[in-house]
Write a structure and sequence with these properties.
The structure is a single chain. The chain is an alpha/beta fold. The chain has two domains: about 1-160 and about 340-365, Quinone Oxidoreductase, Chain A, domain 1; about 170-315, NAD(P)-binding Rossmann-like Domain (Rossmann fold, 3-Layer(aba) Sandwich), CATH 3.40.50. It is built from eleven helices and 18 strands. Strands 3, 5, 6, 9, 10, 17 and 18 form a seven-stranded mixed sheet that branches. A six-stranded parallel sheet has the order 13-12-11-14-15-16, sandwiched between helices. The radius of gyration is 20 Å and the shape is globular. The model has no long low-confidence stretch (mean pLDDT about 95).
Length: about 375
């Protein structure tokens, strides 16, 4: 089947909009028509070469769509079902899946780093007949994508596919960092370094958890404005002041109970750790280049009993928590309308990423059906 996709052939070059062949789903696979795909920094890291991947590759990991066809043995979905792709699929059999940590699934991890399906092959071909790699097993920057059954979760058909796409990465990652990784209790103080799509969801999830002081830190005034709208009680422009000193000033010199880093750079990781008070927890959510190293005061781990931890996919169970987030949105607890700043046709995906880099959006979507 032919589809239009955005293909990356070389880092630091624009995505190419072209026709690709999408192979039919094999056993245990599904074919999904993608209706909305999130413009996320994780894909940008690959586009800029910060996260090395073999190419050509079709990026995109945050999205939502409708199942068009299923392979032999698929039982959880059928044609016509609405789904959210899971960008770190869970096999349901490995140690991590069985222990309730599906985001660490061995099969999903292998797919992420090889760009191939579990059988070691791909389901995309370009006009020259060359194999095109998958990103995170789902490649939502294609009008149609074939993926494993374990990489989709069925959602109610009355849920907006735009809203569903947002939930698929930025929302669940920010929500999970607060609720699952940190387990922020009511009355806590929180600092959030980086107010992009994930950071803003950390902010609104901290508000939902009952945090009484939520300090947002960023260098872009527009992102700090968004943070206030999502529930930040204080904002700090890190381009104008030392954020560590500013956070300490706001907390009587103590620091915060919980600090979150949602950028993926050594300096803000160090800053987030430094503003974590004695006995507090610092959670790193941002994806950094493989060579990145942060300098941490190791003695503080002991003498101050700080906790430093990482979190992928918000340390959630996507098959359960994606549906919980839909219910929270319906109950008015999670704001998705404020989060969605712009939408673009697939042909303008490079413009969408330029706007992301300029800090103009909270979150934006591309619609592969609109070329």
């Amino acid at each position: 089947m032919e589809a239009t996709a955005a293909v990356l052939y070389q880092a630091n070059e624009p995505l190419r909009i072209e026709k690709v062949e999408v192979l039919p789903p094999g056993p245990g696979e599904v074919r999904v028509r993608i209706h909305a795909a999130g413009v996320c920094h994780s894909d940008l890291h690959v586009m800029k070469g910060d996260q090395p991947m073999k190419m050509p590759i079709i990026l995109g990991h945050e999205g939502a769509g409708v199942v068009e066809d299923v392979g032999v043995g698929v039982t959880s979905v059928e044609p016509g079902d609405h789904v959210i792709p899971i960008w770190r699929m869970s096999c349901g059999r490995c140690e991590y899946c069985l222990s309730g940590r599906p985001a660490l699934c061995d099969v999903g991890t292998q797919m992420r780093f090889t760009g191939k399906m579990p059988d070691g092959e791909t389901r995309f071909r370009n006009a020259a007949g060359e194999s095109i790699l998958h990103y995170a097993g789902v490649s939502t920057f294609s009008e149609i994508s074939t993926m494993p059954e374990g990489a989709v979760v069925k959602i109610p058909k009355d849920v907006s596919l735009d809203h569903a796409a947002l939930i698929g990465c930025g929302v669940i990652t920010g929500f999970g960092a607060v609720m699952c990784a940190a387990k922020v209790p009511a009355g806590s103080s929180v600092a959030v370094f980086g107010c992009g799509g994930i950071g803003l969801n950390v902010v609104q999830s901290a508000r939902l958890a009952g945090a009484t002081r939520i300090i947002a830190v960023d260098r872009a005034p527009r992102k700090l404005d968004y943070a206030r709208q999502f529930g930040a009680t204080d904002v700090i422009n890190a381009s104008e002041t030392d954020p560590v000193e500013a956070v300490k000033d706001l907390t009587s010199g103590l620091g915060v109970d919980f600090a979150f880093e949602a950028i993926g750079l050594p300096e803000p990781i160090e800053q987030a750790y430094d503003v974590t008070r004695k006995g507090g927890t610092c959670v790193v959510v941002g994806i950094a280049p493989p060579s990145a190293r942060a300098k941490i005061n190791v003695n503080a781990l002991v003498y101050a009993e700080k906790t430093l931890k990482g979190s992928i996919y918000g340390s959630t169970r996507p098959r359960i928590d994606l549906l919980r987030l839909i219910d929270l949105h319906r109950a008015g607890k999670i704001d998705l309308d404020l989060l969605l700043t712009r939408t673009y046709p697939l042909s303008q995906i490079n413009e969408a990423y330029a706007a992301l880099e300029r800090g103009e959006v909270a979150r934006s979507l591309v619609r592969p059906q609109e070329v």
